[in-house]
User: Fold these one by one.
Assistant:
Number 1:
Amino acid sequence: MKFLHFPILVMKEILKNMDPIVLINLSLISKKMSFLILHGNPSRFKISLSDYLTITSGQESYNIYLCRGKSNLVAVKVAQGMCSVNWNDTWPKLLFHILKVFKCPITTVTGFLLGPVKFREAMQQVIRGNFEIQDMDLRNSSMGSDVLGRMFEEANVTGTLTLNREYESTMQCPKDLKYLLSENSDWFTIDKLIASRCVVIEVTKCSLTNFELDEYLKKWQNGDYPNLEYFFTSGIEPMELLDGLGWCRTGSLVVS
Amino acid sequence: MSVEPEVPIVQVEEVRENPVLYKIISSDNHVFTISEHAVKLSKTLWDLITNLGLTAENALDNPIPVENVNGKNMETIVQFCERHKYDEEEPEYTNYIREFVLPEWDRQLLSIDNEELFQLILATNYLDIQKLMDYCCRVIGDMAKDKTPEELRIIYGIPTDAEDDALERSASDSPGPSG
């Protein structure tokens, strides 16, 4: 059989019916084949990083083990048992290869489950390829402010960033982030609020002063910061009440 | 259009149930009869029948020549279409791997060597029979399970990078049409 002699529509039909592990193994045959994998509609896959590198296709999950060092075979756990990818390098390089070949974003990164070392290794590859991450959950993650701050200057996080630990002022907000949900937000200063392009911001215990917040909200009412649709904070009290703003007696402010 | 008298006529058993029959001539001049319900599984053939205005009365007198499909593949295709002619319509294609179990009868039908399967897929593509294409793709996909890239390369006849480069070099070195 000469697979490459099939008409392109037939190739697409065949590739569309293949699971992600078969597609990864096929992509390792040759450069030409790695380009053709795109015809298998890999955007149907969801890629997430936690204690595994997981590729989900419909109801099926393919959990790739994040083993230390290089190995010829990377084990993959699936519902029916085990399979493998013939990869002769480290798992972060495999992540890079998968994102490059499938051209789809990482749907979710769960920092706590990934651990700081693997998180850093993964992020290096994600930044190297300028790949998109949709949602990042860093609750209870032990990553430091400096490392995260530097990472977020370059990382393309486009969905939700969820935080609950205290960070220093070196912490940054990813520039294309849409939703920021943060507890213990002392790091979230007025500069970061002004620079943010978020649609939704929920920050508790932030370091904004009453004056800063009032100034910001006045400008927002006048049409500045057009991306912002919803803002929630707690623990501060605006000096003036602006029309259309919700203000709770418990000391939280809701703007929407 | 008349049929050569010496041409073998392949009769699939299920065909006899259906009074409306069509005749198809393969590229190697084998003649097949196929029922109306079965032929509707092929979009290409059904469009042709509709466009030619074939009816129950004149269908058998006007065989349809299919020059891109040989008798062997046409026999498999007719068997398949007769077998599945009363199947319910497939649900809409979702964005995921189509979840269906390949029936044993079809697995047997498609237990042919790689080269034959390749030719059958080309014929299926030409005749636009979605269900058979799905089944063939499933067979091809199943071949890939638990295989290494090297094994996949051999099964699917995919050249290595070095072979691709050599092919490109020889193509660029060879003189063009003018000389």
Number 2:
Amino acid sequence: MKKNRRIGSRFLIGLVFLFLYAPIALLIIFSFNEGDSGAVWKGFSLHWYASMLRNRLIIESVYMTLLVSLLATVIATFAGTFAAIGLYSLPRRRRDAILTVNNIPMMNADIVTGVSLCLFFVAFFQFWGRFARWFNGAQTAFALPERLTLGFGTLLLAHIAFNIPYVILNVAPKLRQMDGNLMDAAQDLGCTWMQGFWKVMLPEIKPGIISGALIAFTMSIDDFVISYFTAGSSTSTLAMTIYGMTKRRVTPEINAVSTLLFLTVLVLLVIVNIGEIRQERRKRNASLQGVPLGEKLRRFFATRAGLYAKRGLTAAGVAAFVAAVLFLTRETQSIPVVNVCSWGEYIDTDLIDQFEAETGIRVNYQTAESNETMYSLLKSGGADYDVIVPSDYMIAQLIEEGMLSELNYDNIPNFQLIDPRFRNLSYDPENKYTVPYAWGTLGIIYNPTMIDGEITSWGALYDERNAGKVLLINNSRDAIGEALMYLGYSVNTTDESEIRAAYQVLDDASRRGVFQGKVMDEVFQTMEGGNAAIASYYAGDYLSMLENNEDLRYVIPDEGANWFVDAMCILKDAPHMEEAEAWINFIASTEASLANMDYIGYASPNAEALEQYPAYYEELYGEPMEPEIYDILVTPPEVLARCEMYENSPPDTRALYNRLWIQLGI
Amino acid sequence: MKRKLSLFALPYAVWLALLVVIPLVIMAVYAFTDSDSSAATLENFTDMGVYASVFVRSFRLAAIATLICLLIGYPAAYFMAGEGPGFQRVALALIMLPMWMNFLLRTYSWMSILENNGLLNQLFQKIGLFSLIASVSGQEIESFQMLRTPGAVALGMVYNYLPFMILPIYSVILKLDKNLLEAARDLGANSAQVFLRVILPLSLPGVLSGVTMVFVPSVSTFAISRLLGGGTQMMLGDLIEQQFLGGAYNPHLGAAISMVMMVIVVLCMALMNHFGEGEEQAVML
């Protein structure tokens, strides 16, 4: 009977561990996959480990994560311990009041902590900007920086803020258990307070400090939400990088990183546990009770296990110190930098290396998900970009709100190469702010093996026969625009009833379960893997998908489609104006345009590049380009005539779009 | 002497005011002001009725996830506490270990398991489940839609927050006075009675903090619903994120939603704590 129960209980615990570890085991197994799928095994290979080490984004974010967690843990442990000691000498009522406030960050949802800290930092920066301008105006002895942004500093502050309460919570019970007379006795016997602290108090509360530090570190490493709201655009922890990647194409390099992290932690844990077990055994053998801590430590460090522990501790300390120093020096080194924000899979990354090698300017390249999210990031003060690459209608909005800086075209001679068709467009009629980057169409991508017949209308996106197989594009302008085109309205209508009618189409389809999900760049993985049959997306991205799934087709529906231009602009008060113009000029050159066109699958606005591309393609791949593909890449004028460009809509219409869009989600 | 020591508390009180209280105050100011003119308004709250279904979905999914965590976590913690010290040490380490890998990594792994062409559907295909269904019901299906469903989101929550349920319950049960159990048995209680009338009431503080530690992050998550719900299962976290860094920029509305969520959560917790004190030391490992 007893034995049965024991087996039963172990079985349950085993199941729990299976549940906890199966996904982790899969991550590890697929890090050795030859192919890039997380579900199809193609053979053993280590090449993801090699390419991970070359991936600057991943390496830098791992480094950032460790640095922030270590620094925050050390600072929070130190501050938290002293705060706890202070709290325990306060009268009970005041202590309880402070402890209640102390509990707030632990009880609050992470997102509330993150959001409130983000608002606080931004408000402080505004206040600081005003103060610095006044201060710099009032005297000339030294200048304060006027523009602060979210970044490493705010990230570290946020981590310290949510770590301290955990430290206090762990140290406090030890202080409570400690006999208050001990310290008095020590001092009566002639100790100074400092001596008393080191010799009496510290040994008593040490277990609390250690477990507090451990929890603080764990919380820091595991955190995503608070970092996401306080780190800004240029600082990225590993979690933020992964979150960004899950929205695009997740590379198995991420699996490789997780495997390495997991093994590191596992090894550390095993070492610590073995050390503890040995220590306990020794304790049982020769009681060390009553031996002073210093002696205990000395004896421990004299043993073999202790030797390793000592080496480990020293190494960890040195590593943390070196990392901190390295980081600080890197920050203060005055390498010229340019911060660029663009879309996912939207540049030939070799161009970045080439530009860095040619000019010595470091490119900090980041991506946003959509025009709308980029706008939010700019507005919330979380971004410190120089160059951005928004689409037509968003550019018009940014110009209207005075957020862009006029360009000095003398520094951008390659602007002369831009085809006159793409200059002075409606969003920037006098062409004072922009240099076009790429252009293309938004159409329907579908997998003919998964549905019957051909698609010729936007109606396919809302057709009940395709229930569960359609991916809706996850931004309001495009999704509602498609429904407007389906109904035969202009995508730029400001008529509320027309927009509501379009929303109704989406809402009906959504209720009937037509949409499998709402996606942006997740569309790559989902369509390539045959997990959905129909999606609307951009022509150039279709060409990228075609390389991984030959079945896919692209169509511009009979009702017409949207055509867009994405253009490079510089933000007002950008700190790196010259570097930004150099970058824009580089990207607008014919060579860069050709390379980019080939890599991203979008047509360049550079007249020479458009003309030379077929020859370039033939030289590169040894075969002529198929005319159908060329027509998708460079939309022919007669097709383009059927397409409409988005224009900036009035604030009321924008608000309506936002409201309807959120409503659709709920 | 005591006086002097209390000076240590002063900087921390200032720090708390600066980084905990003031941010919340600023959030409240945002919640009660207008987005265009920053005039005081209640509009952000009165407009919120539209999002009632998001509130309902979030609280329902979080409650389901918490319940499942409790049903799995309590027995696991109970049995763990009954094992030998070596077993306990290893088991404890194994439960903590996944927390040191970021939760997004673990959640991402579930995506490839649950996809239509994912590992689970491949497994069903291999064992002939779909042809079995086809022959029984005549329905031709190629895969189960598991990703981008409410179930997937709840699964993600259970998976990520289960350790937060197990650990506090385990630490409370471990600290139970064994003499009490013996006394109960001596007084004639059978094992069911001992469990129901002694162990369960005494472990309630652990359960309460476990419930809090699972429920609060579940109700406010946005990464899990985004990854496993695929944008179809909008939760409060998504709604808030949308207003700050997402497609619908309106921090005033976002702050208002955050505040309402915070108040509801606090009320839930207060109601629950009415039945017993939460275990303060539960977050100690």
Number 3:
Amino acid sequence: MSSAGGFEAHEGNGEHRGDDERDEYLGRDEDEFGGAADTGSAAGGGAGDGDVPSGTGGTGPGGPPRIPLPRASVEDGGQPLPGPADLGSPAPVPLDLSHDVLKSLLGAWALAACSPAETAAVEEHLGACGSCADEALRLREAVGLLHQPESLDLDPALRTRVLQSCLNRRPPGIPVPEWASPYDAETARLDALLQDFGDAEWHAPVRLRWFEADQATSRRTTVAGVIAHLLSVDGLVAMALGLEDPLAEVLERDKTREQGSVAGPAGRTEAFWRTSHFPPTRSVRAPWREQSHSLVRTVSFTGGAGGLTVPYDDFQLPLHDAMLDRAFECWVHAEDIAEAVDYPYDPPAPRHLNKMIDLAARMLPTALAERRRAGLSAPGQTPHLVPAGAPGRSLRLEIEGAAGGEWLIPLDSPAAVGSAEFEVAHVALDGVEFCKLAAGHVPPEEAAAGQVGDREAIRDVLFAAAGLSRM
Amino acid sequence: MAQKDVPPRWDRKMQQRLARGEAAALGEMYDRFASLVHSLAHRVLGDERAADRVTREVFAHVWEHPETYDPKQGPLRSWVAAVTHRLAVQRLRATETAALPQGESGSAQELESKLRRASVAARADYIVHSMPAPLRAALELAYFQRRDYRQTAADLGVTEDEARRRLRLGLQLLSTAHNVGTPPGYGGAV
């Protein structure tokens, strides 16, 4: 390198890789390129010959040396340099390369990514060729603009703050319904978590856990498999809204196998998993995200009007509850994923969490009735017959924390009304803990923080809550 | 990294949706562009909270004035970058001017050069972010991984000629970041 004596004035810059290096040159070229810097078209147009217009007419004979030395070479990256004996000859003999080849080396030269012989050849050439010297200078300055990308982890709470401040400044003509905003927020949070996942994360094993017939159940999959699961089950809402079933093609292929029901969440997910030729990859992210965006968009237009319901396997939910349910599932599985890849993940915003808890509390009376029908309730318990709409025996569910509140759960019939007057038991739980119970992630025996009153009623309600979970 | 192959149709549709006040469209805009906006603002301002604030201003502008985007001038992405650039530099100028000792012309010059450096750095980030992926991959190998161009060629499974071409073209694109006065990719038409 030192053979190119004319460059020595810039010796000091040779080692720089950061912001300082370009200062000296910054003022010079700024007005020389008038064209729009649209990188897309520049890439297309410039790809052929690679010549970017330069306004300077080459280095004048008497002008100052303008070419900085390349940055420290690859070999200088903290490792010991080879001894002189290893180098063969003391200075590389410049190669005899054509102008075109030398020009093509300018980018690699600027990045110190050439062989020593090529470097010497380029530098000799720069003393003789004005247009290459101009370009070399420009490319060397460009190297100084390369930065290690900063961490792009955005605070997930920023989304809510930014959107809210926008909506305050200009009220929306078509708002996202209140009951869809938890789904909007949770899908955005999960998507942000997935943002920087590499292959290792996408294929990290995840165990889905839920309760079935009072037993903890689980199923092994991967992070990508979980997103496939969310895509499949969100598809139930999509179909109810008249959108395309994301599994249409999969189910068509699966028909030949006749492996039982493919109607509900688990059936659809299993069909997706077994029909894919390969295990799901990161490629499931885009369709999942696209569908979640189009669900939010579509419910903004349809609203809750028309009494739309979403059929699951063996039950159905009104649209707004289904959207809450999907928000809940999205969070629960985002937790599964975060745990699998060892990332932190926060619970939903309190006002969203509160709605999810409310949904579970509203589903409990029906779940209790089903347990009775299935013979899962404690033996010997005889439910009091309660006329529809009348107050009945109730359990007070007290949820602590910012998302908390109190719910009176009628115990004997979904048609009965919860009543403080007929309260027979009181359970107190933290909000997140209750959600983990309802997700089947915490055994009912270990869930309650505080309980007073009818033991059997409490046990029944806690098991019913765990039974709300599904794959 | 960023979604590249978004058809211009998406841009036009998004503009229409924003114009009629569809809150869901605002959310989609945020999901697509927030990390770009925030990182550009952060590159200019070097401060997390200031970048948050600019992010809020950018989306407020997009939401309140979607009509100021002209699809004929370029992609929505470039426009968002240009708005970010303008607002971030504006904020930097305001905060730095407030901190300036009074009546010292030397500091005023320093301020100008600081603003220029921040502008160029942000434009460079945007260019790297939006250049064709093969070029970016080559630059990343040669610069960040310190591979020479032959190793870069081998890593990318391309010829040495092609590796040289990509490195040169990538730097040529990057060098346009010095075009001061031209917000990235949008010809200054904000």
